């Protein structure tokens, strides 16, 4: 028995590997039907961002909703857009403020995943241009003074002079996206993406700043760059079918050499 | 699957890139009022005050106790006026009655300026003036050189001649 253990192991190993490359090997018994035309489904995928409603339930100071969609333009090119609204109240070390507004992002997704026939899973790069309109409201604050001599009496009063609400502020930004979308079950897709945003236009209020922008989220000091994750669930509505573009002749008729 | 591994690395990186140290206030502060002491007989010469003590009128705690010719002192941001009691303790000029006090009220307007997420708001002062009636017990005259207090490092705000 021991004498043959390794031989049996090697044999099994060979068999396992073989099964996965079955398509490429010349198997005389399998006849490829080269006259069947392969169709890809084209249509619209519409969904929602899941992370925002979940966060709204968990965090009392946050509420948000985002609709997402993409439309298949060609084999690997999708037109995509997101529209949403967010409201967030935050307490920083020395003040408390609320950001509230809407945003729209539009762009494309380029799929880089080689799908099996009929599937529309994506591993993609995307680009967006985004517009946001929002308000910032300063709710409360204290004065920062590193000298402690009058700190007790200075912090005891309620300050009102710099309080304010600034409406109709605008910002625009670019986004680069890396994402996945996979089909869970019939026509329902689960997606996740990482977004890197770069602010191109930012209208700051007077004597305050857009520290958090709905759609872009946290704005850091001295930087126009921000990051976001999201998780989406979408449903595909098929409009029409199109012939699949054959890139490589994998499915050529087998001519035995 | 190997070819998509770099994508997964991107998921990890942002957690570190986006952890910025912008939670410590370094880019601003509420300025202090800079007071320089000069000789009343020789007005361009600085003169240190022996045994100087400065206390806010309504506090027990001393702001400073030392011999100096210039000092930076805070002003209240919760009020339009701060009154200091400036004390000189001088054995050399008057051994019998060394301690002399003068009460000096400073009046001003407070302007609140936003600095950053980490700092929030600081106070700037303007229209600085004093209602001190000269001469006092040891202070001859007080001159306000700059009525706006925004920057601390480069300005002399008050000159006190004694």
Pick out its properties.
heterodimer; A: 257 residues; mainly beta; 8-stranded antiparallel β-barrel; two-stranded antiparallel ribbon; 52% strand; B: 162 residues; 5-stranded antiparallel β-sheet
Question: Which helices and strands appear, and what pairs or packs with what?
Answer:
The complex is a heterodimer of chains A (257) and B (162).
Chain A: H1 2-20, E1 39-49, H2 51-58, E2 62-72, E3 77-91, E4 95-111, E5 122-141, H3 151-156, E6 164-185, E7 188-202, E8 212-213, E9 217-218, E10 225-243
Antiparallel strand pairs in A: 1-2, 1-10, 2-3, 3-4, 4-5, 5-6, 6-7, 7-10, 8-9
Chain B: H1 5-17, E1 33-38, E2 49-56, E3 62-68, E4 70-73, E5 81-89, E6 99-116, E7 120-130, E8 141-144, E9 158-161
Parallel strand pairs in B: 1-9
Antiparallel strand pairs in B: 1-4, 2-3, 2-5, 5-6, 6-7, 8-9
Radius of gyration of chain A: 27 Å
Average pLDDT taken over every residue of chain B: 82
Give the DSSP E fraction of chain A (strand runs of 2 or more residues).
over 45%
Mean pLDDT of chain A: 83
List segments of chain B where confidence is low: pLDDT < 50 over at least 5 consecutive residues: 9-19
Which structural class is indicated by helix and strand composition of chain B?
Answer: mainly beta
Please report the total strand number of chain A as a whole number: 10
Please describe the biggest sheet of chain A, giving its number of strands, its sense, and whether it closes into a barrel.
Answer: 8 strands, antiparallel, barrel
Order of helices and strands of chain B: HEEEEEEEEE
> Pair with the most extensive interface?
A-B, 37 and 40 residues
Q: How far apart are the first and last residues' alpha carbons of chain B, in Å?
A: 83 Å
The geometry of chain B reads as: elongated
Radius of gyration of chain B: 24 Å
Mind summarizing the main beta sheet of chain B?
Answer: 5 strands, antiparallel
- Going by helix content, strand content and strand pairing, the class of chain A is mainly beta
Cα end-to-end separation of chain A: 40 Å
Strand content of chain B: 35-45%
């Amino acid at each position: 028995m021991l004498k043959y253990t390794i031989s049996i192991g090697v044999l099994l190993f060979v068999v396992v590997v073989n099964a996965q490359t079955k398509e490429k090997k010349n198997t005389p018994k399998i006849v490829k039907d080269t006259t069947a035309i392969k169709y890809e489904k084209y249509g619209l995928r519409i969904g929602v961002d899941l992370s925002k409603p979940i966060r709204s339930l968990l965090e009392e100071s946050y509420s948000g909703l985002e609709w997402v969609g993409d439309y298949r333009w060609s084999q690997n090119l999708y037109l995509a857009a997101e529209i949403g609204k967010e409201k967030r109240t935050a307490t920083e070390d020395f003040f408390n403020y609320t950001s509230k507004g809407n945003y729209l992002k539009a762009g494309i997704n380029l799929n880089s995943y080689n799908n099996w026939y009929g599937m529309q899973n994506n591993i993609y790069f995307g680009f967006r241009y985004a517009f946001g309109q929002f308000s910032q409201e300063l709710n409360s604050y204290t004065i920062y003074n590193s000298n402690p001599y009058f700190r007790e009496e200075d912090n005891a009063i309620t300050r009102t002079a710099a309080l304010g609400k600034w409406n109709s502020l605008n910002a625009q930004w670019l986004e680069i996206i890396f994402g996945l979308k996979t089909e869970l079950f019939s026509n329902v897709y689960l997606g996740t993406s990482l977004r890197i945003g770069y602010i191109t236009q930012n209208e700051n209020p007077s004597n305050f700043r857009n520290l958090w922008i709905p759609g872009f989220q946290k704005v850091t000091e001295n930087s126009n760059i921000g990051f976001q994750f999201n998780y989406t669930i979408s449903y595909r509505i098929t409009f029409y079918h199109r012939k699949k573009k054959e890139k490589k002749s994998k499915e050529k008729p087998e001519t035995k050499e | 699957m190997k070819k998509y591994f770099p994508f997964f690395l991107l998921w990890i990186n942002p957690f570190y890139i986006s952890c910025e140290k912008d939670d410590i206030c370094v880019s601003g502060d509420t300025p202090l009022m800079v007071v320089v002491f000069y000789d009343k007989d020789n007005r361009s010469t600085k003169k240190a005050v022996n045994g100087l003590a400065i206390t806010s009128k309504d506090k027990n705690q001393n702001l400073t106790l030392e011999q100096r010719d210039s000092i930076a002192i805070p002003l209240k941001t919760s009020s339009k006026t701060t009154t200091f009691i400036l004390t000189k303790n001088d054995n050399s000029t008057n051994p019998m009655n060394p301690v002399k006090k003068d009460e000096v009220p400073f009046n001003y307007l407070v302007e609140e300026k936003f600095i950053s997420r980490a700092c929030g708001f600081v106070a700037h002062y303007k229209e600085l003036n004093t209602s001190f009636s000269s001469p006092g017990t040891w202070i001859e005259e007080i001159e306000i050189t700059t009525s706006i207090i925004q920057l601390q490092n480069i300005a002399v705000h008050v000159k006190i001649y004694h």
